[in-house]
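Render this sequence as a predicted structure.
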Amino acid sequence: MAQLILFNKPWGVLTQFRGKSDEITLADFIRQPGFYPAGRLDKDSEGLLLLTDDGAWQNHISHPRHKMAKTYLVQVEGEITADALQQLRQGVKLKDGITKPAQAKAIVEPDIRPRDPPIRYRAAIPTSWLELTIREGRNRQVRRMTAATGFPTLRLIRTTIGPWSLDGLQPGEWRMITLDDKPTEDKAVARQPARHRRRHRRQ
């Protein structure tokens, strides 16, 4: 059976197991041989990262042709406007082309831990939050999308990928589930309940 790790990646962690001596990597939290990230999450982004020990599942999750939906909580500089949200829903013009339509809505500030280190605040400029769901995987896409509408991203937290979510995991925590033998084109199914794991650190 294929295994999948759902990891709540903290800010500043590289989505790889090796780095320079002063860099924090996945090895600081996860000690499970044979697991590799299915997709990436930028060092300065937080939230859900999936790792699997199965190549077919890794490809199914990360390959753009499967158009797996990814949802983010996004804190932006300024009070997000209805016009900006509509631009995100219709598609935003970036240097590498127009993005596909996204689901976007303004939300109240979520009940989550403050980031460590804190985000950059400017006293004269308020911040606001939105929930954004995309089905693409361009480099730093969400940050570029909000910036193109006039609202730079200050904090970015991925909450779901396809059918999987953070589901109460705190930053640095992970859990493992068992998947179907082979991925299907329409959906991914977990066979066993999640087994929670606490944060791990190298000694």
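Summary. Residues 186-203 have pLDDT under 50 and may be disordered. The first helix runs from residue 55 to 62.
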